[in-house]
Input
Amino acid sequence: MTADVAIGPTDRLALARRLDWRFLLADPRLDRVLVAGTPDRELVAALEAFADTIVVDPTERADVVVVHAPTAAVVRGAIDRVAPGGSIVIELVGRARPGRTGQLAAASAGDVAERLRHDGFIDVHASWVWPNHASGLEIVPLDRPPLIRLSLARRRSGRRARLKARLVGVAFRLGMGPALLDATTVVGRRPDVNVPESGIPAAPLIDAYVDANRARLGLQGLGVGATSSLLVTPRFQASAHVVALVVPPDGEAPRVVAKIHRLADATRTLEAEAACLRLLADRSPDGTAGVPRLIAHEPIGGHAAIVETALAGRPLDPTEIRRGRDRAVRDVGAWARSLQRPEPPDGVDDRWARLLVPSIAALEHALADDPTDLALVARARDTLAPLASAPLALTIEHGDLSHPNLLRFEDHGATGRRGRSARTAATSRTGGVGAIDWELGEPAGYPLTDFLFFLGYVAVVTGGKDRATVPDEHARRIGAAFFGDDRWAAAAAEAYADAAGIDRTLVRPLLVATWVRALARLTGRLVGEPDLGKGDLGETADGARLRGHRYHAVWRIVVEGAAG
Output
């Protein structure tokens, strides 16, 4: 290491996102690393945080050589510094323009890949990083047109984004696509003459895992040949995982999804998701409609990971919600009620002590520097008091029932197959919706809370022509939906309560519970670990951090409204 600076868990996770290309390699560990080119500060900081050793002497060889925004001469020099068995990662930046000389453009990825092959490198892969290296959201193999089309089809955030995606798609079909890219990454491995090669090209980490374990995991249906993956690399503050959308060799759509934790020593988020998916799978022979099937929960490359089936549906995104709010509310409500567990709590119901007491304690700790916030924590505790003894059914909670986790299925079943299978029929009965990303799930949680969270999402995206771009506006729209003159969200929640056999007087306590837990969870989610009561909360959260998040503004308005 070149710097001896204490890095907290939150900073460590943020830095890890800059190194998502690790999962393009056969081994994501970073031992001896050499940096070349003109690296940005975040890249340098990330490498200093995760590499065992930063090689300072440019004449030495390294296990991993990372090159950013290089010239052709820098690439040639960097190739010579890769140790036998080691890897090179070359980040190319910007578009070719008249007058631009020296620095290689992103469109040079193909030429750089050929140069690596010419110099004896194997396992060479070129990828498009969208939108750029500093804030990448997807890593797309450039040699797999179906994955490029899949990436472009995911652009649904607005008319302009969809139009731009169509134009880029046309450019790729005409062979001009690379010229439009702003960021690409090329990786390759130098063979080690002392280690016999299998003769079979090695895929990136997750594809290699899937291909090597097809028989054991029951994935023979993926066909013959190597799979390939589009890596989804979310950048929001609590994002802890890289998600691989695994496509069969002759396919166009994902059949398998693998989630891998960015931090090698973190496990709890995926443990929660696996527990929920196992419980949902046990509910009936065909599983639960609109829910992925868990295939494996085991480390990949030393990182916690889960593998599950892909769901085929369109996102229940803001555009979809605005087109049909009432239908979405009805369908998601019916589906959320289907997650209620049929059996009563066994013995003592520990949800109060396990879910709410730690949440209140977390907020008291994190918000202790503001007397107004502390007073609201006390009011929240008073509002929640009826839940300590209320006879409520156990429910499998999703924990984040909003975009992009919600999907709508039309004439397809939860697995995307046409026809009226038992699983398809079940999906239709619950309104044809479902959810992915169960990492915040709770196998033995409270009823109604998922739906209340979803109603908040609906309130934000339908609260006006302009989007809620600041926390106060986000909170105002939710407050108006539950406590305003129209109070349509409160009416929907009460209808849900009636259908689920919940006393209406518990709707407001459950609403406060929803946002108390959502805000308190950030004290762990900021390092990708949603569990509370484990470790020093002071390391991962403070009042300033929570007050900067929109959940804090929502929590305040909900607590004030419920107590009013």
